[in-house]
């Protein structure tokens, strides 16, 4: 019983040590590992140095170096390198001064010498007493002591957490993707703030009027913190974005966060519904087009899709209003949250571009997959056409389609301003457009950054979806 | 029992491998649609009668549509029975060419392809160059109905006629001599004249002139130039050639409008003719300030093309360079550049454009910058992926073994070979840039409101949607036509440049 426990304990320690060693190879993870487990790292480092000196590590190095130098190895390497360099320059017809050749040759020679030295050292140490002395080895030796393991678990808990994440490829992938998203979000805040900061526009004069005195402008700038240095303002803005408190807008004296919280759901609901409907329409069209390539059906649908890509949203909206609201009086021309009929036209207009793009992508990616060898195999196996198409082709064709949906959703959310203006929807897009004439910096900041955050989150979800849909990506993830 | 019976598959193969058959079916369907659209427009439900002028146009279109359908049927019959199109069927093409007089370019372009049995890049380019110049001439000629014309109108029209004559002559000469292995030397003069006519913006003529020169120079030693190859592949799809033709038509008319159109009609208010319906004097009617919509749309083409092209060219150059450096050097360089571009990529292009314009004010220059910045990451990604692929090829290793510097390898060997996807992508995104331009103008964030840009014209027109819908419909149609043309061209280029299909 006891013996078994120790062996499993030993196996566990070995696994931990293996992960530790693997992480040490990666520069970023090495830094993170040493930092999160700082107390443990210090202890391991002390032991490491102690053992090295105790076993006469330095002495061995010096001895080997002298041995190598006396054998004339360096001179031999140097002469070789010089000769090679001279031949090379002669071949290319370059004229290079002796000094340069000398310098380059000695650089190459040094490099080779060090390599040789390390090689010998390794050989000597492993023959000497069976172990090499690396930082990772020291850790492994220490972790096999239960006492050290328990103590390190207490003082270096974050390190073990990090190692747990690293050891699981899925978790590692998700964490890396999330950290990227956070980095991007901060970057977006920084970029948008900087653009608005270096703007030559002056919100104070735009709001107070041309007749405003210098004191009034100074008071306005002071009230909204516009007189503070760049870094302070940037810090405040980032803090504001994280705490959902961007202060009051310049005009109208309303809280920016409240305004955005009221308007954002409107846009988001419309875009999400329209994405869902668009995907439901586009996928079958694309698949049917791909199964009958170059038929009349295919040409017609792809022409309509291209037309859908080419129609400006605002023109389409205007034509819809002209026909369905003014001429036929079927649907109301302006959006009203209480009347679902009024949402039909905006949803259709918003979704046109996405439907077209997804249908085109579905067609081309399904066509590509249909010509793969494994589809021929599936057909040869005698599977029904329907089975081949739905089980083997469509699933594999989905990956690029998901990408396009993610991209187009972002574009739709960003471009919603136009549709919102046409149908008089009080969403986030028309809010930003209304505020940009001043320019109302906190409102624009909030609108753009929160939209970008939403899109980043959607992109993270899309990336994670890949990993779970596509076995190829999963196996690649495990390897790295 | 032997091979007298032709299987269905064989028929399908024969029909599919004949470019004339596909073009004929496309032309007849589009022509039929146009005829129906004209017929519907000629009927005014308020009076319950037909407008004679539009009805006449519709009848002419129906006539050529019927003829085109008949030709289509004959082509099909010839192909199924004899395997090739008979001379008599090809001769119908000369009658179909007359449809050009009714501005039916779909049928006319098909007819030019039908009459010649062995087509080459020269012939295709010459035919399209000629049709384009004729169209520009016809559209410019509508100005004679105006109360006054531009000062240089006569000179401009004469120059256009001269260009058309040169292009017609070259079309006939190319049809006669183009198939020869070695061209006669005097073709050089024709090529030079063609390049001169290309000053009008007719890049078909420029392409033809350059192709002729390269063929004259190479004297049948090589297999032909890359441009010729691309043109030949491109001309197999009628939609992409027609798209290119419409783009070049707009380019030519934007350039020649400096001589043949009067800018005053497009920007000066004329309160005596407010919101007039379309007539001969104002072919597309007038807006709420009495300005001629037709002239405004023609001048708007200039802005749309310039903004569209520049806001694609700038990110292609910047993004391409960043992507190439990032893909070639890899490691930390790659990491830093791509992470920085990821941030830009996360902001939707349209929102970024709004933010930039909010910060720096609405003007054409700011609009171009705003649209360019948002597009940089996509091009950088495309270029990076290509460079990564090309860097692993043998000729790059060979160049490195010969001791070329990194810069030479990157810009002389790798970048030229990774351009094809960039060209396709940029063609497809010019259309998006045109839409974004007009959308921003519509929101009041784009081109200054006093400039006749398509989005601005539409914005003004949208206020009169109930009473005078045409003021909003025509500029919208212009935008769609231009964007559709770029999309068709981009699709065609992708098929033509895609190495996978070779």
From TrEMBL, chain B:
Q: Which Gene Ontology terms describe the biological processes this protein takes part in?
A: transmembrane transport
- Please tell me where this protein is predominantly located: membrane
How is this protein situated with respect to the membrane? Multi-pass membrane protein
Transmembrane ranges, per UniProt, are: 21-41, 53-75, 95-115, 121-145, 152-174, 186-213, 242-261, 303-329, 350-376, 472-490
Provide the ABC transmembrane type-1 domain boundaries: 301-490
Tell me which InterPro entries the record gives. Answer: BP-dependent_transpt_permease, MetI-like, MetI-like_sf
- Keyword entries, A-Z: Cell membrane, Membrane, Transmembrane, Transmembrane helix, Transport
| PROSITE patterns referenced in this protein's UniProt entry, alphabetically | ABC_TM1
Q: Where in the cell is it found?
A: Cell membrane
User: What Gene Ontology cellular component terms go with this record?
Assistant: plasma membrane
Q: Which family does it belong to?
A: Belongs to the binding-protein-dependent transport system permease family.
Q: What is this protein called?
A: ABC transporter permease
The species this protein was found in: Paenibacillus pinisoli
